[in-house]
Amino acid sequence: MIAKGFIREHRVLRITTLFGDMQDTVKWNKAIDIDENCTIHQGKVIELFCQDHKRLCCSVCFANQHRRCANCDSIDEIVKKLSKDEMRDKLESLSSLLQCITKLQKENKSQYDGLCTKKEDICSLFAKKIEEAKVFLDQAHEQWLKRFEVEHKHHTDNIEVVSDELKRFHTTTTQAKSMLSSVLDSGSDRQIFVVQSKLHAQITDHFNHLETLKIWELTDSYSFKSNQLEKFTKTIKFEDAIPSKKLSDALNKILVCGKSITGKDLPSPLPWLANIKLMSATFKKVSDCYEKECVGYYGLFIDDNRVVISNFSKISLDVYDTSNYFAKLVYSFKSDSEPYDLCYAFGMKRVYVAFGKCVVQYEIKNEGTTFVEVERIPVKGNVIGIAKTFDGFVTANKSSTTFRWSDFSIKCSLLNGKLRDWPVICSSFCGRKIAYNTEGGVIVMDTKGNKLSEYSCSGRKQVGLSFDAEGNVITCFCDSQPEQINCDGKSRRIINFEETYESFIPGNITFHPEGHRCIVFKYCNRGCTIFRIFEIEKI
To answer: Hey, is 426 helix, strand or coil?
Structure first.
């Protein structure tokens, strides 16, 4: 609890907008203190900073919202420990973030232009198809009309043939009537009978002739079904253009580039570790795991108790629950190819996995039982070891160590004198230093490639490398217990992870982002991996 008398007197300068007009004229290039008013509580001055919520606050903010927070300190106390190098790194991070946003804006503009071009292409194609359809309809109509005209002429010709035959039969009948009428008026009975018989035979013969003609099946009408035309004459709704959507990775890229600005990065080392000298700390085993037919020396914590392990032999990423003394396999995610080293993307649930020719980012959900592929990035050079730095990544293979930008493009490469049996690489908790193995020792560099220190390992084969929360280097060997080398290089010690009843040679060590726990892999070449979870003991 902060005492009421904590608040000191202030010379208040009115600040408007973001950092705009001030009541007093201030030259920003001079080192002077400027007190800022609280934007929420009028007349109150910003005096405190809540580490838990990353918020500036006045005394009223503290009393109302942050008094139960464990890490709420005065700004005066915080600035005593302020590192200008850290602020310069934040400035560099802002520059990287601006470059990232500029690139995303260009990509967004390109996506917009591409979408508009695609729309015009589709409309042009559609109009062309409509014109083709019109031509086809005109041609179909012309052909249909020709067929109908031919058929109609055929039907009308038949009717005209019938009409001609009926006309001739009409003539025959008329003549017979006239002749019979004449004979009845002036002829004898014999003549009447003879003429009548002849006329009857004549009419009968003509009628029989008509019956032999195949002309009597006549067309009396037409019917027409316009089913096909109705498809065009009715209201037509053409198929809509189907959008092909994918989740934008813009926020992901912004989070990666601006992790220190957005506040979405990994948790910081626990405060109580600052009271312990890690060069003399003791480690207590809290969980144990033994798996047959499992080979792997890379892993990460995805929360306080669950870890994800690269399994070379099963070609999988395995998640274990280490909350109990005996770790339990929770889920095994089958990968496309052999997985190697891992590092965090941002937060503990997003990880990058090295697969040699590519790096894949996964989001791990549902307590480790679901892996969602976020992005797959092809890389130049073979990537086995991978570590995250403040402004990008550092990767390694048997022949080189490579600094990369946040998009995994190559910044610069450091060729090793001889091929390494196995590339070993790590980055510090703050991401400002990296360490990698050479034939004879360990080299520590900053992220610009400047060598900070070099430690000899007397030609012993190194199989693992890590930083603790203080920046001390821990290197593992294939035949002995690991050595912890002080960050100033002046002292070193052996950390004994071995137990009296069993030989245990650590092959690699990976710390929890909060610095209090670590995964310790047993070095073994017999086709199995034992890993254990150790915790730093509090004083």
So the answer is: strand
**Residues listed for the chain:** 539
The residue whose two tokens read 């254990």 is: 532
* Cβ proximity of 461 and 449 under 8 Å: no
How is residue 526 written in tokens?
Answer: 């017999």
In a domain, 227, yes or no: yes
CA distance 118 to 481: 62
Higher pLDDT, 27 or 337: 337
Going through 438-502 in order, the beta strands assigned E by DSSP cover 441-446, 451-456, 462-467, 473-477, 483-485, 492-494
CA 257 to chain centre: 16
DSSP characters over 97-154: HHHHHHHHHHHHHHHHHHHHHHHHHHHHHHHHHHHHHHHHHHHHHHHHHHHHHHHHHH
39-78 burial, b if ≥16 CB within 10 A, otherwise e? eeeeebbbbbbbeeeeeebbbebbeeebeebeebeebeee
Determine, yes or no, domain membership for 290.
yes
Nearest CA to 265 among 405, 434, 433, 93? 93
Do 78 and 95 belong to one domain?
Answer: no
| Maximum C-alpha span of the chain | 164
End-to-end CA distance of the chain: 24
Beta sheet of 451-456, edge-to-edge order: 425-427, 433-437, 441-446, 451-456
Beta-carbon contacts of 413 under 8 Å, excluding residues fewer than 6 positions away, are: 381, 400, 401, 402, 403
Q: Dig out the tokens for 416 from the structure.
A: 């090793």
CA–CA gap between residue 41 and residue 489 (Å, rounded): 50
444 and 470 in a single domain? The answer is yes
Where residue 56 sits, what CATH number does that domain have?
Answer: 3.30.160
Rounded Cα distance between 227 and 240, Å, is 24
- pLDDT above 50: residue 493: yes
Residues 367 and 433 in one domain: yes
**Is this model's pTM higher than 0.70 or not?**
no
CB neighbourhood size of 450 (10 A): 7
Strand spans (E) along 271-428: 283-292, 299-301, 306-311, 316-321, 328-334, 342-344, 350-354, 356-365, 370-383, 385-389, 392-396, 400-404, 410-415, 425-427
Q: Is 60 helix (H, G, I), strand (E, B) or coil?
A: helix
Angle at the Cα of 486 (from 344 to 461), degrees rounded to 5?
Answer: 70
Q: What's residue 191's pLDDT?
A: 87
Q: Show the domain range for 60.
A: 4-82
Least confident among 106-110, 247-251, 521-525: 247-251
**Of residues 315 and 503, more confidently modeled:** 315
